[in-house]
Amino acid sequence: MKALVTGATGFVGSAVARALLGAGHTVRVLVRPTSDRRNLDGLAVDAVVGDLTDGASLRSACAGCDALFHVAADYRLWTRDPQAMMAANVDGTRNILRAAMDAGVSRVVYTSSVATLGIRPGGQSADERTPATLADMIGPYKRSKFLAEETVLGMIATEGAPVVIVNPSAPIGPYDIKPTPTGRMIVEAATGRMPAYVDTGLNVVHVDDVAAGHLAAFERGVTGERYILGGENLTLRQILVAIAAMTGGRAPLFRVPHSLILPVAFVAETWTRWTGGEEPFATVDGVRMARKKMFFTSDKAVRHLGYAPRPAVKALSDAIRWFRENGYLG
Predict the structure, then answer these.
(1) Domain-embedded: residue 163
(2) N or C: which end of the chain has fewer CB within 10 A?
(3) Are 228 and 298 in contact (CB under 8 A)?
(4) What's 312's DSSP letter?
(5) Is residue 259 assigned to a domain?
(6) Is 281 within the bounds of a domain?
């Protein structure tokens, strides 16, 4: 099989590319002219230059491919230009699906996110049927992913797009070169810069398990269905305590109310706008999201795809080891 992978220079996309190569498939990757290609070093892939806003480049990239894994997304909790994020995540998804269908690609796996799903109260685990609306989406990233998934579902219903949807939770592990917001949290904790915590929680999953879930969705998923690719539900305090144990650091000392963090996030965002920085260390949307525990269950993927995520401690240890070996921990 010849598969095109978008976002392969990034964290999850490169894991998907490595999984496909490991399974013996031929892999083509779509890269922008300015992409950081370190995650492709040593991989026997065919890199083609293109952009999700350029239909001609997408049609060329899809030509001759049997499968598309559309992993690319603008994943940030803060952006100066929400419209650019919307264009990349929503319009870009529509463009690549259209190009794939025009090229006769027979199967597509679309990487959505648990960000598009509803949250259940009281720390209960949400699943693929937990309802959510656009009004529930906090911030431009979650809104863009919600609208992108709606676009995909619409193309499945009206045009017969051959798409299976996967919804990863919070992937962690090696090759998080940017790093992602979750990876940045791990770096901050591992270097002793998170002495306090807020009362929140995440579903933590090894990035390589997410990649394996993509291949399982391609092989066994049902067109039009969604599958959560998650791991273990942990509170933020549990995550920080585990990181401290692995690094020999100090566990967080106290819990900070969300109401005290919110003004700090406002100041951080304002300072970043004034100084021209890339991303504030705390964001208003991040604090608002942290008011709820983002817990999920992957039971559907386990039952129908044979999905088998490993314990969160393995994901954390692999992430810390990679960050240490690559100079992120000083």
Answers:
(1) yes
(2) C
(3) yes
(4) H
(5) no
(6) no
End-to-end CA separation in angstroms for the chain = 42
* Beta strands 232-235; 201-206: pairing state: antiparallel
pLDDT of residue 286: 76
Q: Which two tokens stand for residue 146?
A: 């919600």
Residue 286 CB contacts under 8 Å (≥ 6 apart), including other chains: 77, 78, 181, 265
Predicted TM-score of the model (pTM): 0.95
pLDDT of residue 260: 74
The set of residues, in sequence order, having a beta carbon less than 8 Å from that of 234 and lying 6+ positions away, is 201, 202, 203, 204, 242, 312
- Condensed to tens digits (0 to 9), the pLDDT of residues 26-59 reads 999 999 999 999 999 999 999 999 999 999 999 9
Q: Which residues contact 265 (CB under 8 A, 6 or more apart)?
A: 280, 282, 283, 284, 286, 287
C-alpha–C-alpha distance, residues 257 and 71, integer Å: 35
90-107: pLDDT as tens digits = 999 999 999 999 999 999
pLDDT in the model for residue 104: 97
Structural domains of the chain, count: 1
Domain with 114 in it: what CATH number? 3.40.50.720
Per residue, the 3-state secondary structure of 43-67, as one string, reads CCCEEEECCCCCHHHHHHHHCCCCE
Spans in the chain with pLDDT lower than 50: none
pLDDT for 251 equals: 87
Owning domain of residue 153? 2-172+204-231+295-309
Do 137 and 112 form a contact (C-beta atoms < 8 A)? no
CA-to-CA separations, 330 to 177, 214, 326, in angstroms, rounded: 15, 33, 9
3-state class (DSSP) for residue 4: strand
Classify residue 185: in a domain, yes or no: no
CA 318 to chain centre: 17
Distance CA 206, CA 17 (A): 15
